[in-house]
UniProtKB/TrEMBL annotation:
Superkingdom assignment: Bacteria
InterPro entries per UniProt: HD/PDEase_dom (IPR003607), HD_GYP_dom (IPR037522)
The protein, known as: HD domain-containing phosphohydrolase
Domain HD-GYP stretches: 114-310
UniProt xrefs under Pfam families: HD_5 (PF13487)
SUPFAM superfamilies documented for this protein: HD-domain/PDEase-like (SSF109604)
Organism, as annotated: Parachitinimonas caeni
Length: 383
């Protein structure tokens, strides 16, 4: 067993220990589940030297280690990004004190980039198919996926792309708990709630600056990610070129991912409908060129969208083709409504397999095995 030294930040007074604790010679001091009850007791133990299984320590800190001998998996990389982002947010004060917030954020950016590089279609499909876990966290990771892919489409440099992705991953740090609460609300926002909501870009920017973020592009994109070029946004009611391009990219991704996610007060909007709304808004709320790049990247029928074909089969959009309105669909439900024994790839440019309509996934109680559709890139390794 490899041991790692326990840091003061690993132990919380009054909470059960997450691992067995040993001294430097490997002798057991405290068992897993033991509760340290006082500050004095903790100080004495730390002075003595406390050690635990290194792998267990890494897991409790959110330092997820991916087995590099396994085939690369988009699903796993993005789930790791979600887990690390949640850990970083909960440890924000500690990261600020240890001056490692920016470095830890760039690790998460690298996971998002890696997941998109392995298979961009799986990365997009996760937005629609993996709507589990804490909403506030997965929403920012989902939006970061979209931003990363759109930036690549636009030819942004690697440095620019990483800075914009970092902004997307931290855009809502000033309202995380509030955002989770609002997602469950079934009534319209009160004026007081709206006022609090419109302050979160300021709060997010302040938290990031205090955590050691010095990059003005990052900070400005966070501050302006709810501004619209027609002046209808917040918190500054900025107009035109006063709203930076980076903030508009974050805003477009934020809007799309929010619309395709169900809320307590409304169902999810079909992704092609969400894109159509963005198309109609371009030139009003967003720069038309940016909106065009955004729609070009996601496609008319984004990966992961459930559709019904002309022959009656139901499947998921699995990859784009040169024809924007004719993607490849992986059918897994037959014309009579029974699950197919194997997934069938369908070219929707053919009349027999043309897309007839979009389908609400909740209308089918069928398990969607992403690995059957996208292979090893969709494998979820244990993390």
């Amino acid at each position: 067993m490899a041991y790692g030294r326990i840091k003061p930040s690993d132990v919380h007074i009054g909470r059960p220990l997450q691992w067995d604790v040993f001294d430097e010679k490997g002798n057991l001091l405290l068992g897993k589940g033991h509760v340290i009850s006082s500050e004095n007791q903790l100080v004495r133990l730390l002075q003595l030297g406390m050690f635990a299984d290194n792998a267990a320590l890494q897991r409790s800190r959110g330092d997820v280690v991916i087995d590099e001998t396994l085939p690369p998996s988009t699903v796993t990389l993005l789930l790791v990004a979600r887990k690390k982002l949640e850990t970083l947010f909960t440890q924000l004060e500690q990261a600020t004190l240890e001056d490692n917030f920016v470095a830890r954020m760039h690790e998460i950016v690298a996971h998002v980039e890696g997941g998109c590089s392995v298979n961009p279609n799986v990365a997009l499909a996760m937005i629609l198919l993996r709507q589990d876990g804490r909403y506030a966290i997965r929403h920012m990771v989902n939006a970061a996926v979209v931003v990363n892919l759109v930036c690549k489409s636009m030819g942004k440099t690697e440095d620019e792309r990483r800075r914009i992705v970092a902004a997307t991953l931290s855009m809502n740090f000033g309202m995380m708990d509030y955002q989770d609460k609002l997602k469950q609300q079934t009534t319209p926002l009160t004026p007081e709630q709206r006022a609090e909501l419109e302050q979160h870009p300021f709060k997010s920017r302040e938290l990031l600056a205090n955590a050691g973020v010095l990059d003005e592009l990052w900070l400005t994109a966070v501050l302006q990610h709810h501004e619209y070029i027609d002046g209808s946004g917040y918190p500054g009611k900025l107009k035109g070129d006063s709203v930076c391009q980076e903030a508009q990219l974050v805003s477009l991704a934020d809007l799309f991912c929010a619309r395709v996610t169900p809320r307590a007060y409304r169902a999810a909007v079909a992704s092609n409908v969400a894109l159509r709304g963005i198309l109609l808004d371009r030139g009003k709320a967003f720069n038309p060129l940016l909106a065009a790049h955004f729609i070009k990247t996601l496609g008319i029928y984004p990966a992961g969208m459930m559709v019904k074909l002309a022959n009656g089969e139901i499947g998921l959009v699995s990859e784009p083709t040169e024809k924007a309105n004719c993607p490849i669909v992986s059918s897994f439900i037959g014309p009579r409504g029974a699950p197919l024994t194997i997934v069938l790839k369908r070219d929707t440019s053919l009349d027999l397999y043309a897309i007839r309509e979009t389908v609400d996934p909740k209308s089918f109680a069928v398990h969607i095995n992403m690995e059957n559709i996208w292979g090893s890139a969709a494998v979820e390794y244990r993390i």
